[in-house]
Amino acid sequence: HRNILLGTVCFAAAVVTMHFTAISLTDFVATGEASVSGPALSNEALALGVTVAVFLICGGFVLTGISFIEPQAQTDPAMEERVAEDKREGATAPILPGVPYEREGQTFFAPRERIAAVRAEGHYTILYMDGEKLFCPWSITEAEARLKPSGFLRAHRSYLINPAHVTRFERARDNGLCHFERTPGLERVPVSRSRLPLVREALGV
């Protein structure tokens, strides 16, 4: 905008200067000669020359005020780094919904990371969380499918466990036991023989 304003001011100054300079320097002297010697320009040629000169001068001033290069938006490197970090965190740690449980006719949602284990109860399940047993409308099969992205795994046909809450692992001959000493009401969860390799791999033993 400043370039356009500067070009406009220069254009106006050039027109005014040229006009008044021409008027002030123009003078007419009467002579007694009847004829003029030497070549003379006709009015048409003079008008055409003035028009072309004015056009070139004005066009030059106008072009000096025009910028054909778009200014680049200045960005804050710290802001770009924060945005990139947020994108990486969003890609690696998606927000997953809580696990529904019912109490007194209302449905609540339990944070996944606070659930120690899930036990099958007919067509429904029981959540073990913070020393409480909570009724969940999911079946054990549905709970396994939905909680698998959060690290839950099937330790037994009736149990899903959260390895983060396991405090001790006990190996028997053909099976095992996962102990949850920090979860009141849930002493241990059996591990079937077919699930034993998967559980041991998750626990790193």
Descriptive tags:
five-stranded antiparallel sheet, 10 strands, alpha+beta, rod-shaped, 205 residues, three-stranded antiparallel sheet, OB fold (Dihydrolipoamide Acetyltransferase, E2P)
Q: For the terminal residues, how far apart are their CA atoms?
A: 70 Å
Shape: rod-shaped
CATH class division of the largest domain: Mainly Beta
Using the CA coordinates, give the radius of gyration.
Answer: 44 Å
Element pattern in H and E: HHHEEEEEHEEEEEH
**Helix content bin:** 25-40%
The strand count comes to 10
DSSP helical segment count: 5
Q: How does the major sheet shape up?
A: 5 strands, antiparallel
Poorly predicted residue ranges: none
**Quaternary status:** single chain
Count of discrete domains: 2
What fraction of the residues are assigned to beta strands by DSSP?
15-25%
Across the major sheet, the strand order is 5-4-3-7-6
- The helix-and-strand class reads alpha+beta
CATH architecture annotation of the largest domain: Beta Barrel
What CATH calls the topology of the largest domain is OB fold (Dihydrolipoamide Acetyltransferase, E2P)
CATH homology group of the largest domain: LytTr DNA-binding domain
Mean pLDDT: 81
Mind explaining what this structure looks like?
- It is a single chain.
- The protein has 205 residues and is α+β, with helices and mostly antiparallel strands.
- The protein folds into two domains: 1-21 and 45-67; 99-203, LytTr DNA-binding domain (OB fold (Dihydrolipoamide Acetyltransferase, E2P)), CATH 2.40.50.
- Helices cover 38% and strands 23% of the residues.
- It is built from five helices and ten strands.
- A hairpin with a 4-residue loop joins β8 and β9 (176-179).
- The relative contact order is 0.09.
